[in-house]
Amino acid sequence: MSAVVDFPVKPEARPYLDAFAEIASEPDWLRNARRAGLSRFAELGFPSRRSENWRYLNLRPLEKQPLLPASGHKPTLPLDLPAGVYLRPIRTAIAERPELLRALGDDLGADHPFASLNAAFFANGFVLDVAPGIVVETPIEIVRSAGAASASLHTRGVINMGAGARATVFETYYGDEEAQAASYLDIGKYWRNDFAAWRLGEGASLTRIALVEEEPGAVHLGEVRATLGAGAKLNAFALLLGGGTVRHEANVIIAGDNAECRYDGAFVVSGSEEANIVTAVDHQAVGGTTSELIKGVAAGRGHGAFQGKIIVREGAQQTDARQTSRNLILGRRASIDTKPELEILADDVKCAHGASVGDLDEAALFYLRARGIPTDEARRLLVEGFLREPVEGIADPAIREHLLGRLSARLARLEEWA
What we know:
Radius of gyration: 21 Å
Largest sheet: 9 strands, mixed
Strand content: 35-45%
Number of helices: 10
Distance between the termini: 54 Å
Structural class: alpha/beta
Order of helices and strands: HHHEHHHEEEEHEEEEEEEEEEEEHHH
Strand order of the largest sheet: 1-2-4-6-8-10-12-14-16
Number of domains: 1
């Protein structure tokens, strides 16, 4: 059964309403959640640059040419896990552990159209539940491939960490490497709309690394919502290396006392690519800490942006929050925007932010050239050295070396220097 609404619908939302069909085998709570999400998206439509949160991203091509939902590929999940760890495809979890999806996935917010659209159409994804006190020693790797051209893929990841639990999750989003190397923007035209919901119980620890290597014509919109209990620790990193239009958004609530959030990221854009990293960390409890380091590199006509906001509520005394954005522009046509923000309502806090945008260090470039290193190779070494800092903060050596290898491969294709 398709959706029927009795209120004005944004024109760009109409094709998605027409494509919606209920699944009779799904439980009532899920069908109701899908209807609510679709209705909210119909009201909101696509955000425009007039919205402060979306001012640096051009979604007009996606708005003009609808990419309707496809089933997409199921994520590749590991098979061997210790007792106390539940990891299943989201379709399986709907039947086996519906309480996890209902607790972590229902609160979509009033101003997030693509999370609402995801609620209506999500078909694939995973649910991870780590029981209290369980420590997962080996990183959990989840691979998401793009299997549909000229379509949208709505995927969802749910992570629930019990009190004192600890785990590392490494998620990869990729298209086709040959298409990436070709650098033609009409290759791999699809839209990945990914939504993640995480809840960390008291004293829990979650490390999550995301690698985005979509195809040149792809749109990747990813949103994370995390809630941290007392003493919980979140260590997250996102590396954006591929895709025509890529946005990584993270919304973190420090709900319990003495919780810690480290959220780092890096992006590389060239050609006419766009990449945005948007973060909001909301301190609502005493003694929380936040550390953010975001680095970006833009070449050719690429455009990158970072928008970060740290909120310290009135009762969140002894908060320590620091935010840094550093960026390199390679050439006259590239651009990067950066907008760090602090909103402080408490008086016993330590908060700071800083941002810089510049070119390569000419003295360092001269030093390398004087020692016989060709100009292009010297530039690549300096750019790679600049971007290594947030990557080297990853504790797991295998993941760290893999990311450094993918970063090096991406920079080898960064031909637009002038």
